[in-house]
TrEMBL record:
It is an enzyme of class 2 (transferase). Its EC number is 2.7.4.3. It comes from the Bacteria. Belongs to the adenylate kinase family. The keyword Membrane does not apply. It catalyses: AMP + ATP = 2 ADP. ATP binds at G12, S13, G14, K15, G16, T17, R133, R181. GO terms for molecular function: AMP kinase activity; ATP binding. This is Adenylate kinase. Keywords: ATP-binding, Cytoplasm, Kinase, Nucleotide biosynthesis, Nucleotide-binding, Transferase. Catalyzes the reversible transfer of the terminal phosphate group between ATP and AMP. Plays an important role in cellular energy homeostasis and in adenine nucleotide metabolism. InterPro entries: Adenylat/UMP-CMP_kin, P-loop_NTPase. It comes from Candidatus Magasanikbacteria bacterium CG10_big_fil_rev_8_21_14_0_10_42_10. AMP binds at T33, R38, K61, L62, V63, Q97, R141, R152.
Length: 195
């Protein structure tokens, strides 16, 4: 089983849910840059870069790549050093990040341990799902507001995902599962890929 799973998918595609299932089923460590950023809330010791990133996150925009690396690299290094497998949830969201993480894995000599999985969903479905999530109050988050929703889908929708997918396709690392299916079906499809 691969040590590093990179989950791709637009907001609402179910990356978080599926990451949790990989944790429960196979003992992966869940690394989500969104969670790491939300974890900054209320901290009084943040430097300017992290304060700015937190604000950017609240606006539904992508935070600076440097912050993603600052949070992501340490978390990945620590988990791998402890002999754990990692599932990266939303850690790669533009082509520059895809390239930089790839270099990072090359430097660690673990590229052959990487599997990229996209949970595919179209932008309209994403919008409907996130709207429903807001209406239900379930899993509500500081950036789950109707105004921010359009922005998140604009900057993090399928148009933004395409260059990332192309990068991983070129490296023969990408597998795609149909995110319109039930959570259990998506889980089974992912299990099939990873085991
Ligand atoms: P998520 O919980 O994965 O939906 O992420 C919440 C927010 O954190 C996103 O809307 C972005 O503002 C920010 N974020 C998380 N991961 C990244 C990343 N890899 N690159 C840029 N911004 C990110």
């Amino acid at each position: 089983m691969k040590k590093i799973i990179i989950l791709l998918g637009i907001p609402g595609s179910g990356k978080g849910t599926q990451a949790m299932r990989l944790v429960e089923n196979y003992g992966y460590v869940h690394i989500s840059t969104g969670d790491l950023l939300r974890g900054l809330q209320g901290r009084t010791d943040l430097d300017e870069e992290l304060q700015e990133a937190f604000q950017t996150m609240l606006e539904g925009k992508l935070v600076q790549d440097a912050v993603v690396y600052r949070l992501g690299f340490d978390a990945i290094r620590d988990a791998l050093a402890m002999g754990k497998k990692v599932v990266l949830d939303g850690v790669v969201r533009n082509k520059a990040q895809a390239e930089r993480y790839h270099t990072f894995f090359e430097e660690m000599d673990v590229v052959s341990d990487v599997q990229v999985i996209e949970i595919a969903l179209d932008d309209d479905e994403s919008f409907d799902r996130l709207k429903a999530r807001i209406a239900s109050g379930y899993q509500s988050r500081p950036d789950d507001t109707p105004e921010i929703l359009r922005e998140r889908i604009k900057v993090q929708g399928n148009a933004a995902l395409l260059p990332i997918k192309e990068f991983y396709e070129e490296h023969h690392l990408l597998k795609i599962v149909d995110g319109r299916r039930s959570m259990d079906d998506v889980e089974r499809a992912i299990q099939h890929i990873v085991s």
